[in-house]
């Protein structure tokens, strides 16, 4: 009764447009949060992989160091003596150098003397 009859009523389109715009803004906010969280997760995964790679590099260096220690001729000689091995050193004159020949044989050693 307080409205005049000749006054135009607001149509539904502006209300629909406002609701649609609010929905787009809300969806944009949700997507922004989702992508930001995903970015943080990926960064954490990359950091974890870097830590794993560094650990593997450390393991490789440790293994190489142990191999060098185990392949030390003086350490091998000492271990053989401690174990009571019957192996004994040979003179350099007995050592034969063999030139590698390209052949189709795949065998490494022969059982025949």
Characterization of the model:
This protein is 62% helix and 0% strand. The protein contains 2 helices and no strands. The longest helix is centred in the middle third of the chain and has 59 residues, at 12-70. It is rod-shaped. It starts with 11 loop residues before the first helix and ends in a 30-residue tail after the last helix.
Keywords summarizing the entry:
113 residues, mainly alpha, 2 helices
Write the layout of secondary structure elements.
Layout: H1 12-70, H2 73-83
Task: Summarize the model shown.
It contains 2 helices and no strands. It has 113 residues and is an all-alpha fold.
Give the ordered list of helices and strands: HH
Q: What is the percentage of strand-forming residues?
A: under 5%
Q: Please describe the biggest sheet, giving its number of strands, its sense, and whether it closes into a barrel.
A: none
Distance between the termini: 123 Å
Nearest-integer average pLDDT: 85
Q: Which outline best applies? A: rod-shaped
Q: How many separate helices?
A: 2
Task: Give the fraction of residues assigned to helices.
Answer: 55-70%
Q: What ranges have pLDDT less than 50 throughout 5 or more consecutive residues?
A: none
């Amino acid at each position: 009764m307080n409205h005049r009859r000749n006054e135009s009523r607001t149509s539904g389109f502006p209300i629909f447009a406002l609701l649609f715009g609010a929905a787009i803004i809300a969806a944009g906010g949700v997507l922004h949060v989702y992508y930001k969280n995903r970015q943080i997760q990926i960064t954490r995964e990359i950091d974890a992989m870097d830590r794993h790679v560094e650990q593997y590099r450390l393991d490789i260096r440790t293994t190489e160091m142990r191999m060098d220690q185990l392949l030390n001729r003086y350490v091998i000689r000492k271990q053989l003596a401690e174990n009571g091995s019957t192996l004994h050193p040979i003179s350099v004159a007995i050592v034969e150098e063999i030139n590698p020949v390209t052949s189709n044989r795949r065998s490494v050693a022969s059982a025949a003397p």
